Amino acid sequence: MRFLLILLLPSLIYGGERLAFSGATTIQPVIEEIAPPYAHQNKLNLSIEGGGSDQGIKDVISGKTDIGMVNRPLTNEEKTSIDYTTIGYDATAFIIHKNNPIKGITRSQLINIYTGKITNWHQLGGKNRAIVLISKKPDRGTMRIIEKETGLFHPLNPKNADQRKKLSRNTWDSGSNNDAIVWVGGLYDAIGFVSAGSALRNMQLGMPIKLLAYEGVIPNEKSIFDKSYPLVSELNLVYAKNNPKAKGFVSFILTSKGQQALSHNNFMRIDHGK
How do residues 204-228 score in pLDDT, each as one tens digit? Predict the structure, then answer.
């Protein structure tokens, strides 16, 4: 088995003004690939952090960073306070260990799994083994997507007090996509939900996971492009309305060269099919 090497690029200094990013770890690898040469060419000091979609938005509003990375649609309230640009598309995928024989789940099965009504893989046609639930922290964009899809909420989400609509408290909360992917890869009985692009990238590196069909559809280039897969999501960059540094980078990532970074990371380009 090959080993997964994660490259961290917290900051790069090129001698000029700072260009700072934070937010969704789904988008972070794209920025880590394309932002350094852009910063070097424009003599900008570069800072890139994760933290989740909600954190990325908060950091832009507070002025801590120039650009927030957000892997979900913005709310109407968020759209009134900041500008945003959709740079590509991804999907929320359900992953299990590659040796688990289960091939797909339905929406009703997903809800029953994460509310604790289905607790054993045998109930889905698999082996007689207890299911290990892996979820996301409540401020993560992927968690928001799952909440909208299922009508269920993270136990720590203060917006819903109805216990019948909360995810099981037996879940393990992951932060980044890599957290969930490594856990599922190391636990035969686990199930989690992550960025499809992130999952595919890790599978190419040898991580022993596989994508489940959801409602009979596997997330892939075709099903994301034609949106036959139910959980296609936007990849957005958010920034202050009066920030020329941010707008300059956003214009760059929409070019053919910038869009190549999305393709390299198994995401759908905004110009796909054109």
Answer: 999 999 999 999 999 999 999 999 9
| Confidence (pTM) | 0.86
Can you list the pairs that 39-42 forms with residues at least 24 positions away whose Cβ atoms lie under 8 Å? Answer: 39/12, 39/14, 40/12, 40/14, 42/16, 42/248
Is position 136 within any domain? Answer: yes
- Runs of H (alpha helix) within 90-186: 107-114, 141-150, 177-186
Using CA atoms, how far apart are residues 230 and 106, in angstroms rounded to an integer?
11
CATH code, domain carrying 247? 3.40.190.10
For 177-200, write each residue's pLDDT tens digit: 999 999 999 999 999 999 999 999
- CA 22 to CA 64: how far, in whole Å? 9
DSSP state of 74: P
> Do residues 144 and 130 share a domain?
yes
pLDDT cut 70: percent of the chain above it: 93
Q: For residue 265, is pLDDT > 90?
A: yes
205, 210, 215, 221: CA torsion to nearest 10? 20
Instruction: Give the C-alpha separation, 187 to 87, whole Å.
Output: 34
The C-alpha atoms of residue 198 and residue 196 are separated, in whole angstroms, by 5
Q: Whole domain around residue 23: which residue ranges? A: 11-90+234-269
Instruction: Decide if 98 contacts 207 (C-beta within 8 A).
Output: no
